[in-house]
# Entry
Amino acid sequence: MAKIKLSAISTRAPKSADKEKTKAKTAKLLQELDELQNLLIAESKHSLLVVVQGMDASGKDGVVRNVFGSLNPLGVSVKSYKAPTAEELSHDFLWRVHKEAAPKGMIKIFNRSHYEDVVITRVHAWCDDVTAQKRMKAITDFEQLLVEHNNTKILKFYLHVSAKEQQERLRERLKDPQKMWKYNENDFAEAKLWNKYMSYYEECFNKCNAVPWHIIPSDQNWYKEFLIAQKVHDTLKHLNMQYPGLKK
# Structure
């Protein structure tokens, strides 16, 4: 498998992509996702874990809202990972993650995830390289456990936004009243560490790839949402799910 190099991957849609036609395709996919989710709930043989990673302002919240927001709330839940609490730090780093794994019949979305423990922790030298290597092996084993023992499909998306686009979005939070609540003065400081983040993310892509990563060009929200909706739709459709019928 070829190694992933983010600098070699475009953050934008192909020039041939038509915005309005793509948005129409997304709407159709989301309509069909409603039925596929209903099948997932009814059959209750599989679960879907969606991992959404990306730099600040890459559009993680927008993915949750615009791709999954129209689904049946009884069958989808979101876990947003922030700095671990004192209780969480008293356990192994996957303790807070494993208990949030998707049960059969459910779609679980991780807005940030266990990968924070091998990315931001390394950028700020809170985790040394030896520990990080052990954690990445544990992450691979954890994901394989979910796949092999709980019929969990895992989709891992990295929202690939350019540094230029990120800066524009961060500055927009200073001006747009509807986005000011997202402003965090620390985001600009984190953005200065861009190269470190890219390096550690690339290592995750290339070492934690038993469950493959999907690098999603994210400078244009309409294209990002289409690619994710398409992947989720195709993953559920290929499960060949059936309604169970009357219980005997």
User: Anything to note?
Assistant: The domain at 43-237 is CATH 3.40.50.300 (Rossmann fold). The chain has one domain: 43-237. Strands lie at 47-54, 76-80, 107-111, 152-160, 213-217. The CA atoms of residues 24 and 53 lie 26 Å apart.
